[in-house]
Structure formats: C-alpha cells, structure tokens
Amino acid sequence: MHLEGSLSPQLLFALATRNQIALPSAAEDASFASPEALLDRYTHFTSLDDFLHYYYVGMSALIHAQDFEDLASEYFLRAKADGVVHAEVFFDPQAHTGRGVSYETVRQGFTKACQKAQEQLGISTKLILCFLRHLPVKNGQQTLTEAKHDLLSGALSGIGLDSSEKGNPPGAWRDIYAEAKGCGIKRTAHAGEEGPVEYIREAVTELDVERIDHGIRLADDDDLMSEIAARHLLVTVCPLSNVRLQCVGSVQQLPIRQFLDAGVDFSINSDDPAYFGGYILDNYCAVQEAFELSKDEWGRIAKASVQGSWCDDGRKAAISVQLEEVLEKYARD
What residues act catalytically? Predict the structure, then answer.
C-alpha cells in the first residue's frame, strides 16, 4: 500500500490547518467544502488519473517530518486493528521534493513511524521507494542517487514504479532498474493495472522485477501467466482499488479464480485505502463475498503473501508459525 494513499480527509484538513496550506476552495471544487464532501467525492473516481489529481492535492499538506510520521502512524494503527503483523509500504519522494520538501524530511518521518509500529504495535515493516512514471526518467535517476545510501544500508527495502500507467510503459526505466539490480536492491513495479498485459511482460523482461503490483491484466496472456506462476513472482492484487478506479466493474470481475487455477502466487492488498473505501480487512471480505473461497484457497493466498514478502527468512518463519496457528484455530471444517 501507499502511505500517502492513507491520508484521510480528516487528517488532510487538520494538516492543512496546522501548516497553513490553502486547499482548493469550495467555489473551485465543491469536494473541498468539508472532509465529508471530499470523502464522498472519492466514491466517484472515473480513472486512475482522476484519483491522482486528488492524491497530489492531498500531498500539498505534508510539509514537515512530523506530518509524514502522523500520516503513517495513523495507517499503522488502522492496520493493527485489522490484524496486520507485517506491512510493506510505498512512498513517493518525487511528489514531495518537487514541491520543496526534502527527501530526508520525508524519509525521516516515515522511518520514525515504522519504528514506532514495530516497538508499540508489533508490526514489522519494509519501506519501499517508488518512482513516479509520469515524470522524466532523469528525475527518477536523481532520486535513486539521493536515496542509494538508504537502499544499500537497508533503511529502505527496495524500489517500485507507480503513478499514471497509460502511455508510460515500464521499459523506459530499464537503466535505473539495471543499476538497482547491480547493487542488490530489490525491485517491483506497477504493471497491468490500467495498462495492457504487455506492460507486465516488459516489467519482467526489461526491469527484471521480483514481483508485480496490481497485475490483473496478467489473465489476458495464458503463456505469461504460466511463466509468472512457474517463477513464483508475487502479484499484489488490490481489489477495491481496481473497482473504484473502474479497472473492473466489480470485484467479481477480477481474475482471482484464474490466478488460483493457474497457480499464480498473489496477495490481497489495500493500495490507497483512504481513497478507495477499504483497508486490508475490507479487501479480504470483498474477495470472500465475491468468490466464496475455501479455507485451503485462503491458506494458499496467505502463504504466498508471506513467501513473496521482502522479509528475511527469520521473520517469514515467525509469521508462518502465526499463520499456521490461525489456520488451525479458525479453518477447521
């Protein structure tokens, strides 16, 4: 999930007041008349780009390290309530450095929240830097250079690629990804959300990604789907996001059953939960309501999520023990 995508309207308005940031007036956009009006607007996105407009407006209220810490901490509290024990979270430094907020301010705030999540909530985390694909590749290269020390030290766990997918095929970032691979940095990318299945193939062949974010168009290519299954590349499916952004008409139209039948490893995720009307448990429930999965099928999904995570082997083993205990306790016939 994207940490900036957990910015609730209530927190947005509070941060804007605290930082004396002028949000659009109600005359310019009636959605900004109140937090409630803005939340209602979030139920009417027409596309990924429509959502991104509000996503980037929201970011304007994030100025200080404390703002980023507050944002992430609010998310981790909600995740804890949903039973999360490990979270791998994206952030978009270019969206902040481009408006004068330093990379270090952003990283510092999010890192502190991650540390608090571990210490106070028992949630382990991985913080993943994403490049914005609608910006020039050279801008992404500058971001990689600035963040490389943190990526090599383990302060950041890897890189990703997000933002407007249509018209921005992943192959343009091949040099950045090759440099990251050469340094042993983990790699993922959004592909096959709104874009075609060819973007998934391009992410795999040209970026050499280690997992695929969204990836629902994978079902359009049986050969590629078989390859992804054989390689155990995790696909991070975001059901309610896909519906809210009109990538599919309903959760029932997602390729959950096709992925299970083809042996594709995939996880269920919340993407930008404050904007898409559902945190992680809401997404799990929506999938169950749509597909009536068996206990064994949920076991497969959960185990693939653990194995496809970027945890070290020790943490994977610990989570796997917890998972087996849950399956034993609640998955009896």
Answer: 193
